[in-house]
Amino acid sequence: MLSVLIETRNDEEGLARTLASLIGGAVEGVVREVIVCDTGSTDQTHRVAEHAGCQYVTDGVAAGIRQAKGDWLLLLEPGARMAEGWIDEVVAHTARQTMAARFSRTRASRTPFLARVFSGNRALADGLLISKRQAAAAAKSAGSAEAIARGLATKRLDAEIWMAPAKQERRSST
């Protein structure tokens, strides 16, 4: 039913954290497949994807969208983690909506107002639940998952997400 696409580059640890949070969805039969869309990693990202049973593509998110079997796609940043209760909310949304949706941030993930004003907004920070048809159309003119998510009208889901740390935070913690 749902294909998860994670676009990544040199973030094996973040990828592993995200994949761990999707296990419940796979057990419940909601997550049909996970496709890791690599954009030139030189670390062990491919091994993490392989050991987790993910499909692995190196041609970017557009190739992942073409390969996806689900009617709905969940686009995530590596390092983002789904909070408890996300499965029921996604199932309910996909059953009744055609509009794309984003998750609500957990309280700990919410960015203070001034930090939001002075930093670049990451369009995928809240994840993106989108129909495959809409994603395929957007991918024709967008070169990345971030570009697909940017400027898209979405509904806000009640389910929460722990957003991935900003890329510079991830680098400094290693």
Layout of SSEs?
Layout: E1 2-8, H1 12-21, H2 23-27, E2 31-38, H3 45-51, E3 55-57, H4 61-67, E4 72-76, E5 81-82, H5 86-96, E6 101-105, H6 113-118, E7 128-131, H7 132-139, H8 145-149, E8 155-162, H9 167-172
Parallel strand pairs: 1-2, 1-4, 2-3, 6-8
Antiparallel strand pairs: 4-7, 5-8
Helix pairs in contact: 1-3, 4-7
Task: Please tell me about this protein's structure.
The chain is an alpha/beta fold and 174 residues long. Helix content is 37%, strand content 24%. The chain contains nine helices and eight strands. It has helices at residues 12-21, 23-27, 45-51, 61-67, 86-96, 113-118, 132-139, 145-149, 167-172; strands at 2-8, 31-38, 55-57, 72-76, 81-82, 101-105, 128-131, 155-162. It has a five-stranded mixed beta sheet with strand order 3-2-1-4-7, with helices on both faces. Strands 5-8-6 form a three-stranded mixed beta sheet. Helix 4 (61-67) runs antiparallel to helix 7. The radius of gyration is 15 Å and the shape is globular. The N and C termini lie far apart (35 Å). 39% of the residues are buried. The model is unreliable at 168-174 (pLDDT under 50).
Brief digest:
This protein is an alpha/beta fold and 174 residues long. The chain has helices spanning 12-21, 23-27, 45-51, 61-67, 86-96, 113-118, 132-139, 145-149, 167-172; strands at 2-8, 31-38, 55-57, 72-76, 81-82, 101-105, 128-131, 155-162.
Largest sheet properties: 5 strands, mixed
Shape: globular
**Given the helix and strand composition, which structural class is it?**
alpha/beta
Average pLDDT works out at 88
Strand order of the largest sheet: 3-2-1-4-7
Fraction in beta strands: 15-25%
Query: What is the tally of helical segments?
Result: 9
Cα-based radius of gyration, to the nearest Å: 15 Å
Report the strand count.
Answer: 8
C-alpha termini separation: 35 Å
Instruction: Give helix and strand order, one letter per element, not per position.
Output: EHHEHEHEEHEHEHHEH
Helix content: 25-40%
Low-pLDDT runs of 5+ residues are 168-174
